[in-house]
Amino acid sequence: MNIKAIYDLSVTLETYMPAWPTNPFVDIKPVGIAARDGYTAETYFSPTHTGTHIDAPYHLLETGTPID
User: Fold this and answer.
1) DSSP string covering 12-55
2) How far is CA 54 from CA 3, 4, 61, 62, 66, in A?
3) Beta bridge partners of 29
4) How many of the other CB atoms lie within 10 Å of CB of 17?
5) What is the pLDDT of residue 41?
6) Can you give the pLDDT at residue 5?
7) Cβ(13)–Cβ(26) under 8 Å?
């Protein structure tokens, strides 16, 4: 197989990005700030069905196969 191009369709994850109406928003909070702490780090929370993702059969069927 000769791959001619790769297109990155990834969505940048951001706080308050569009989400399904019943899902909570993505929540990204700084816990380490380089100027203050000497490192940069964040906590991150989101539903598994956020941004660019893969849907397994389990997403729609109780008896479907999960992604893991």
Assistant:
1) PP-TT----TTSPPPEEEEEE-HHHHSS-EEEEE--SSSSS---
2) 22, 23, 15, 17, 10
3) 43
4) 14
5) 97
6) 93
7) yes
CA angle 60, 64, 67 (to 5 degrees): 90
User: Which residue's entry shows tokens 């196969």?
Assistant: 65
Residue-wise pLDDT for 12-67, tens only, equals: 988 888 888 999 999 999 999 999 999 999 999 998 888 887 788 988 898 999 87
Tokens for 26, please give them. 């993505």
Tokens for 28? 């990204």
Distance of CA 56 to the CA centre of its chain: 15
